Amino acid sequence: MDALHRHRSLYKGTTPPWKEAYRKRCVDRLKNSRSKLLDKYRRMGESSPGASIMVQEVMEEEWSALRSEDHRLPSLWGPHGLPEMFGVMKERDELAVLEEIQQELMSQEMSIIEEYERDLQFEQQYISSVVEGMDEMHIVCPICRMNNLSINSYFISCPCGLYINTKKRNISPDVLQRLLESRVSEHMENCLHNPVFSLTPSTESCTMLMISCKACDYLSVVL
């Protein structure tokens, strides 16, 4: 009797004992591969709409890792991946478990992508709000997001309390716009959370405009 048949006979008619361990490993692996998943998603673009991006890879690698700890588990994957696995694993209970885990992972993968798309939309909306009124040379304050900044050769200010000395620094609305866009985009390349702007005194007794994110520890000087 080969490993697969011995495996079936042990657990026929019951929930496989490996279910929860395997499910948890797959879920954790997908969560920890968020950056890799989003990188693949960005590269794919519109080439495979609705297709799973990393579920098969996660299930294959975590099954191999689990099998290395329990040699009674059969080898399920061949050159054709998940379809071949479902062809080999013919026990109804085990098939249902694998399909359940696959669906959970696909749902989690979609949630990660949807969150990324929401935050990408936030970035685009924010950049649009920053440059709103550029025809009148106005930029919305990145701190209060309500008032237009006052920008001249000496300082940048806002009624909310923002004040930055820019004397001899040649900071025009166009330059400030590019700086804000650059920092927001830089952060969004690696993190899905929304950054915040703040003012911080510098060593030269001047105030700096900073962008930061508690979720990923991103910190950068805007101006």
Walk me through the structure.
By secondary structure, the chain is mainly α. The chain is built from 7 helices and 6 strands, in the order ααααααβββαβββ. Strands 1-2-3 form a 3-stranded antiparallel beta sheet, with no helix packed on it. Strands 4-5-6 form a 3-stranded antiparallel beta sheet. A hairpin with a 4-residue loop joins strand 5 (207-213) and strand 6. The longest helix is centred in the middle third of the chain and has 39 residues, at 92-130. The chain is elongated and about 75 Å long.
Concise account of the structure shown:
The protein is mainly α and 223 residues long.
Keywords:
223 residues, mainly alpha, 3-stranded antiparallel sheet, 7 helices
Helix and strand layout, with pairings?
Layout: H1 3-11, H2 19-32, H3 34-44, H4 55-69, H5 82-88, H6 92-130, E1 150-151, E2 155-157, E3 163-165, H7 173-188, E4 196-201, E5 207-213, E6 218-221
Antiparallel strand pairs: 1-2, 2-3, 4-5, 5-6
Helix pairs in contact: 2-4, 2-6, 3-6, 6-7
